[in-house]
Write a structure and sequence with these properties.
about 40% helix; about 400 residues; alpha/beta; 15 helices
């Protein structure tokens, strides 16, 4: 049995996942492009334990060319399982189509959930047609499982464990821990949905609520993006400049030191399908404050045990949790001591074991029998993806269509 796992761009955690999968099953990793406009990652190298293909240096080669190359690589490796990232990208449609036409099984990997975007009937019907071409689902957590089952996959053909990281990279040895003296940390892109403006407002409230004589903690915002200047201006407007730091974007190799120099991690997003930074923070032993609008909150946050969930629009609530944690070193220590045991359930080995389990389940299932309507919808998407993407990604040139 052979599995091909497709991602748009491979970061270090993608390679860690495939390295774990390759210990259990013949594995091919297919990267769509080495660079994109979303992340500033450095180039991540294959671990060498699996076959690896990269289709393009970047997306400028054109979407038709990428589709052609994907078909060619799948023809070359002839996998039994084709794992694609979601139902949105056109290259995912190409991977599903290859599987359907070559008697292979398509596996949809997803961290989408019901609350991460407005839901419209027409779009949901299109998604259902795509999902019905798949034999299984591999999802981030419980919220994602509920959503993909709502789109038509039976729950007994859906496994959890998709969003995992290399915990050992972030844990480091105990003697290297260098906890700072009162640091709230957040890591992410500086874009509106990450809600760093809201975090700054909550931090201002936290400072105003501090009892007399208690030293304030600092807030460190690691990342970069289009909102950077706005965030710096807001920090100045709120008179936070001396206590808020903007060290910039951090590469993967730098992140463990950043996590281990902090005391509490905060993810304040207004919308977040999952939030892998929560996995990373837990692996580093940080108590967490996570927005209830993050998919990871339901699976990774045990309220009062390793952190708290909060309403991202309620700045007072977040400030109250910041005040409570910063004023109780014993609570911080208790929470920190259990964080690694929680993150251990979501290691790269979990990803690998889940891939193996769902592969066996799917291979025991017959190929999907599709209605004429579902096949027609999918074919229309393959010819012109304008129904679900802003940028056309046409496959008309493919002789297979």
């Amino acid at each position: 049995m052979k599995v091909a796992i497709i991602f748009e761009r491979f970061g270090e955690y993608h390679h860690a996942r495939l390295h774990a999968v390759a210990k259990l099953i013949d594995t091919v990793g297919i990267e769509i492009a080495q660079a994109d406009d979303t992340y500033e990652w450095g180039h991540a190298r294959s671990r060498g334990s699996y076959k690896f293909e990269c289709l393009a240096k970047d997306m400028s080669v054109g979407r038709n060319a990428i589709a052609d190359r994907l078909f060619d690589r799948l023809d070359k490796h002839s996998p039994d399982i084709v794992a694609v990232p979601g139902w949105f990208p056109s290259y995912a449609h190409a991977g599903i189509d290859w599987a359907y036409r070559n008697n292979a099984r398509a596996l949809i990997m997803s961290d989408s959930n019901l609350f991460d975007a407005p839901r419209r009937w027409v779009v949901e019907r299109i998604k259902k047609a795509i999902v019905r071409h798949a034999c299984g689902g591999f999802v981030a957590g419980r919220c994602a499982r509920e959503y993909i089952c709502k789109l038509g996959l039976p729950s007994d053909r859906v496994v959890l464990g998709y969003n995992c990281v290399d915990n050992a990279h972030f844990a480091r040895d105990e003697h290297t821990k260098i906890r700072g003296s009162g640091v709230f940390l957040s890591v992410g892109r500086f874009i509106p949905r990450k809600n760093f403006l809201g975090l700054l407002k909550a931090f201002r409230i936290y400072l105003d609520r501090l009892p007399a004589g208690r030293s304030p903690w600092r807030l460190v915002l690691v990342g970069d993006g289009g909102q950077r200047d706005e965030l710096i201006a807001e920090a100045q407007r709120l008179d936070l400049a001396e206590l808020v730091e903007f060290p910039g974007f951090a590469q993967y190799i730098e992140l463990p030191g950043i996590y281990h120099a902090a005391n509490v991690f905060i993810l304040p997003s207004l919308v977040e399908q999952w939030g892998l930074v929560v996995n990373e923070a837990l692996a580093a032993g940080l108590p967490i404050l996570v927005s209830e609008r993050c998919g990871s909150a339901r699976d990774l946050v045990l309220n009062g045990f390793n952190g708290y969930e909060f309403d991202p629009s309620d700045h007072v609530e977040l400030a109250r949790y910041m005040e409570a944690l910063s004023g109780d070193p014993e609570l911080i220590q208790r929470m920190a001591s259990v964080c690694p045991s929680i993150s251990a359930i979501w290691d790269a080995d979990r990803f690998a074991n889940s891939v193996l389990a769902i592969s066996h389940i799917m291979m025991a299932e017959p190929l999907p029998v599709l209605s004429l309507l579902d096949r027609s919808i999918f074919r229309a998407i393959r010819i012109s993806s304008k129904a679900i993407e802003k940028l056309p990604f046409s496959y008309i040139s493919r002789s297979r269509v």
